[in-house]
Amino acid sequence: MCGEVVTPPARRAHFFDIGDPTNPEALTFVATPCGSHTASGVLDLANNRLLVYSSPSSNAAACRGIDIIEVPLGRPGRHLLPALRPLRRAGPGLPEPGDD
Questions:
Q1: Is 3 contained in some domain?
Q2: How confident is the model at residue 89 (pLDDT cuts 50, 70, 90)?
Q3: 72 domain residue, yes or no
Q4: For residue 41, is it within any domain?
Q5: pLDDT in tens, 15-59
Q6: Within 10 A of 68 (CB to CB), how many other CB atoms are there?
Q7: In what side-by-side order are the strands of the sheet with 49-55?
Q8: Is residue 21 part of a domain?
Q9: What whole-number distance in Å separates Cα of residue 82 and Cα of residue 8?
């Protein structure tokens, strides 16, 4: 798998097991409504899950927010993508998401 082209549809977050860095294993591909550009993960051992905050790859008004993907440890195929969470801007005079 290492160095090979990944062929699922592009609008997905890709999850790999890199326990063996010389042979990463594709675990699951999570469809996101607006693609996945930049992701950050937080390990939540108390709840046996990985939380992934994924920034959409589209800047369309309907995609201004962040996806929160919940991936159960040991069962990555049973992931949850509750919804795109809108981002709010802080400060006076800044437009709200969707205001163009």
A1: no
A2: low
A3: yes
A4: yes
A5: 888 899 999 888 888 888 787 878 888 999 999 988 888 888 777
A6: 16
A7: 38-44, 49-55, 65-72, 84-86
A8: yes
A9: 21
